[in-house]
Predict the 3D structure of the following.
Amino acid sequence: MSETGETRDEQNPIAPQPPRAIEKTPMFTAMNAARYQRQTIIREIETSQPKLLCYVAGNKAPVDRLDTLGFVDMLHNVPPGAPIDLMLHTPGGDVDAAEKLITLLRNAVGEEGRLRVIVPDYAKSAGTLMALGANAILMSDSSELGPIDPQVSSKDGNGNDVIYSVLTYLNAYDEARKALNDTPDDTASRITFEKFDPILVRKFKSVKDRARLFAENLLKRRGLNFSRIASELMDINRYPSHGQMIGWEAASNIGLTIEYLPPDDPIWRKYWALYCHLRLAIESDQRIFESNYVSLLM
């Protein structure tokens, strides 16, 4: 107080006030409440587990080149060489895109670093390929991998997009060719064989060889029996359906490095709870990339 009895504020009524702390608005907080809840679960998991990155896709959202944006964002603040867990849920997709994504992760952890893939539900085809690049695959009773059977989109005679199973198409082609060789005068065999597009056959053989080489190279770097594992995962007689389940026991018997947690394990229950939240956040044609600091929906 001054000699005149006035307070400092009365002497200078426009004196600067202490800066107000910036905080999220109530509406922003409400709109992002689900994300905050998911990221809280991620932080709880990371108190006892490595850095967790999540890539969860709907059943109509295949692995795609655009996914690079999400992976680069998730890796932005991860220290080089730090161990990484990747929660992976995908129906499969582009082999070349899968190679780029798993290469990003492997480069982030380093050649001697540890990358683990967590499969809460399923990682099919190209997703299985990505899992092969991990040092270990964490699975439970709800988890499944799938045969390595690349899916390729092509135009039919009417200009419509058709999704082909590469292995199924080539297997049917080989059967038709054999039938025609066995009975060259059989009209039905000739008509069946001529339905196959030679351009597609050449293209699909190239895609098959590409997927096999990619799988073998990933497995070779992990010191596994790359030839046997790749052959079994691409054996259409053993796995005639693209969506056929390869559970944790079958994956382990094939020769993959599997870590198993029972469904009632406390850590697995947290992974499953997080996965449920992530699935509810997306539509069937969307995918979400999330960590404790990144949340990107595409």
User: Anything to note?
Assistant: The chain has a mean pLDDT of 89. The radius of gyration is 26 Å.
